[in-house]
Every structure is written in C-alpha cells, then in structure tokens.
Amino acid sequence: VNYPDISLFDEIAKTLDLSLVELLGIEDRSKEEIVQKDGFPQIPGVKEAIKRFHDEGFRLEVASSSAGYYIGRVLDALEIRQYFECYTSGEEVDHPKPAPDTFVRAIEKLKLKPEDCLIVEDSTNGGKAAAAAGTKCVWFHNPDSGNQQIPHAVLEIASWSQENVEKIIELMKQ
User: Fold this and answer.
1) For 124-159, how does the pLDDT look when each residue is reduced to its tens digit (9 = 90+)?
2) Strands of the sheet with 136-140, listed across from one edge
3) Which of 26, 37, 39, 44 is the most buried (most CB within 10 A)?
4) Is the pTM of this model over 0.85?
C-alpha cells in the first residue's frame, strides 16, 4: 500500500494545535478499512530482524505516534509482541514527534541512557525526535513513507537484509 506523503498536513496540524485526524477530517475507521481489506502491511525481513535483535539480547520497545491500541493490534497481528518489553504511544506524551517526548518516555520505561539507545526511523519527524532525544538513529528507507530525510542518521538501509541486520547489530554493540 502506498500512502501519500502527508508531512505538510502534519506540520499544519501541529501549527494549529490539532491532530492530523482533526485537520483532515479523517476517522480511525479509514485506517481500519485498509487493515480489514489488506491486513497489516508487512515489510520483508523485519520480523526476522526483530527476532534476531531479541535473540542477541537487545532490549526492544516500540515508540510510535500511533494510538496505543493500534500498536498492540499490529504487534499481535504480526506475531512479534513477545520480542518487545513494552511500547510507548504518542498518546502518552504532551508533545509528539518531532519533539523528543515519545522517545524520552520510551527510554525512561527501559531505564536506559539515550546514548545507549539506537532508534530505527522511517520519517523526517521521527529522525528529528531521535536526534533531540540524544540517541543514534538508523534511517530505514521505507517505500511506503514517501519523501523523507534523516541527514544525521548513523546508517541508512533500504531493506532488512541479513547484511543490514548485521550492520545494525554492530552499531548496537558500540
């Protein structure tokens, strides 16, 4: 599924202190209709990468702007919940991405230091939030994320190949 780049609308919504849903008049059911029709999108290799990271002993958490109930549904549908200690939703913080609050909250939950964390992001706002939180960031060029830029990423990947997973593991061990 290719979604349009809505970053401009997202910026307008933030300026007006509205949610993107409020600004565009979209309801959660539009996302629900896509999931009902096509299922949750699965990125080739990501499930195996998550399992590998977990098996290597890395602590994993999802930190997303999505609603908490939706994060849980995705983790369950993709059968990967068991690999994550917890998740943090943008609903839990006052200022969502590009503010660092979501990542700061996630790091607090894991009782880690930002410099000991590595965040994988596919959006400009997420990359900005990772930098502001003081973490390293890997930029995944997600074909469904539109035109994004994360110039300060320590690594850029376009797929979840074994080679890229090994590069990320090396970064996490540093």
Assistant:
1) 999 999 999 999 999 999 887 888 899 999 999 999
2) 118-121, 136-140, 155-157
3) 26
4) no
